[in-house]
Amino acid sequence: MSDTQERPINPIVKQVLELGPTIAFFLIYLRLKEQVYVWGGTEYSGFIVATLIFVPILLICMAILWKLTGHLSRLQIFTAVIVIFFGGLTAYFNDERFFKMKTTIVYGVFATLLGIGLLQGKSYLAYILNDMMPMKEEGWMILTRRLFVMFILLGVGNEFVWRTMSTDAWVKIETFGFPLLLFGFLWWQIVTLQKYLILPPEEQK
Q1: CA distance 200 to 65
Q2: Do the beta carbons of residue 140 and residue 126 sit within 8 Å?
Q3: Where is the secretion signal located (predicted)?
Q4: Fewest CB atoms within 10 A around its CB: which of 11, 133, 170, 198?
């Protein structure tokens, strides 16, 4: 699924399918957070129930995205596997900590992969993104080092938030805080690494 050529679709539809599950989880959590549900004699918090609802929503959106584009990236597949695994642990053990830890695992895996590339003197980002954003090797290495550090900081930040703050705070920071931080960081990289971009011949002066 990840190696087939992607068919173009409306970018708004794509954004809805990619971001919709996270927003849906946030809204469902807000609706259920004060509730306690009893199944089989066991009490489940609103957070646990919201997690259980989130998993099939994510899978449905991914299935629709694959149906429309004929493509799922390795990153999307990896994220789905992590969500299913830790969502299942959360429900099985009735412990919301598992779902909160999955964010640390995701950032940790990203940092590890980039770190392995750096130890080899390579930028794995270049392999993935060079066709989309051609850049000199020096630029890719700088971006890789910076993202490596950023993912470590995000992972540490997630651990700090879920271990020291309320579930309500974690959900808000997970939904909006971390993504906005990462978006702002990437935007800053685009601005500061302009000199390393390889422009098409018609744009070169």
Answers
A1: 31
A2: yes
A3: none
A4: 11
Instruction: Specify whether the backbone of 129 is left (phi greater than 0), alpha (psi in -120 to 50) or beta.
Output: alpha
Nearest-angstrom CA–CA distance, 106 and 102: 6
How do residues 111-121 score in pLDDT, each as one tens digit?
Answer: 999 999 999 99
The DSSP call for residue 134 is -
CA distance 94 to 92: 6
Structure-derived torsion over alpha carbons of residues 95, 99, 100, 105, reported in degrees to the nearest 10: 130
- Tell me phi and psi for residue 11, to 5 degrees: -60, -30
Q: Give the Cα-Cα-Cα angle 171, 177, 180 (nearest 5 degrees).
A: 140
Q: Angle 46-69/74-93 helices, nearest 10 degrees? A: 160
pLDDT tens per residue across span 11-61:
888 888 888 999 999 999 999 988 888 888 889 999 999 999 999 999 999
CA distances from 67 to 61, 64, 74 (A): 10, 5, 16
Cβ–Cβ under 8 Å, residues 103 and 158: yes
Helices (H), the chain: 11-32, 46-69, 74-93, 97-119, 124-129, 137-164, 167-172, 178-192
